[in-house]
């Protein structure tokens, strides 16, 4: 038997151009929080990632599933040490606990959707990144001290969000 409909939950329509969308600048990338864990009762989150040439996070792993669908451009994923170049239209699933990272080495901007299940990555990014006005806003110009503070905060909160930098 499935439970009754939970009338306290509502329909979510994710539009990256909606003025209410939260945009986060993190490691030079711009992440739009399209569907948050708060909206899905913690089941998953969906993030629209704009990755400039050269952008991407350092190697890491976490104990939740992460799926990427490339919308524009190309992204190089490193999964358990092996590189895979993935283009628009393809989807990549990263199993929980597997070491990985991605980098845009294409020479052009790339864009992808990232779904994490369960949710939490959306909250982590919001706590360690900087809110920017919109998808086209440049990343903030941070001093060396501010960059060090962002790295310290990311490392400090990683275990809270079930992540580990490698």
From TrEMBL:
InterPro entries: Cupin_2 (IPR013096), QDO-like (IPR053146), RmlC-like_jellyroll (IPR014710), RmlC_Cupin_sf (IPR011051). Residues 49-115 form the Cupin type-2 domain. Pfam families: Cupin_2. This is Cupin domain-containing protein. The lineage of its organism: Bacteria, Bacillati, Actinomycetota, Actinomycetes, Kitasatosporales.
């Amino acid at each position: 038997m499935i439970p009754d409909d939970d009338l306290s939950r509502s329909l979510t329509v994710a539009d990256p151009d909606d003025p209410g969308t939260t945009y986060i600048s993190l490691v030079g990338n711009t992440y739009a929080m399209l569907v948050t864990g708060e909206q899905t009762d913690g089941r998953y989150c969906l993030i629209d990632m704009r990755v400039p040439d050269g952008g991407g996070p350092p190697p890491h792993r976490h104990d939740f599933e992460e799926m990427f669908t490339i919308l524009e451009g190309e992204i190089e994923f490193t999964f358990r040490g092996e590189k895979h170049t993935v283009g628009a239209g393809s989807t990549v699933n990263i199993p929980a606990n597997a070491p990985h990272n991605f980098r845009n080495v294409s020479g052009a901007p790339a864009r992808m959707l990232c779904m994490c299940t369960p949710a939490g990555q959306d909250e982590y990014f919001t706590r360690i990144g900087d809110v920017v006005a919109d998808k086209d806003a440049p990343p903030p110009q941070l001093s060396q001290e501010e960059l060090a503070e962002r790295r310290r905060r990311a490392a400090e909160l990683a275990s809270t969000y079930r992540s580990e930098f490698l």
